[in-house]
């Protein structure tokens, strides 16, 4: 039976609005602050970086960053060997490719051999340019290193990576 007065009949918009207000329908759950932050790319990256620092222990501190920076800035100077020794004594060998490459020019054969082994492990995940640069550096080390131990280690790395 049709309505006589068009005004009495609610529009579909009003019906939907009433349905949304009903306590019997599911309400959209409010997102927490963390969920909203994880949707934002910049905040997510920052959050993950902080979590990494938390699990990194000593290597996640500001002092660690300063020590790494000191190695990079002192490369090619007289202070380089001391900066590397201090870093290795405090934190062990670094884990990043660039710093390990720099350590190949250190005087101490133990540090150089350790860096060679660490770089050998990282080698498969690097691009062709980095791999080629590393192989060139190892070839030079195998021919010009003053320590026989370093020369032998370099030759072993070359043999293993070329096989």
Automatic annotation (TrEMBL):
Domain of life assignment: Bacteria
Protein name: Uncharacterized protein
Originating organism: Thermodesulfatator atlanticus
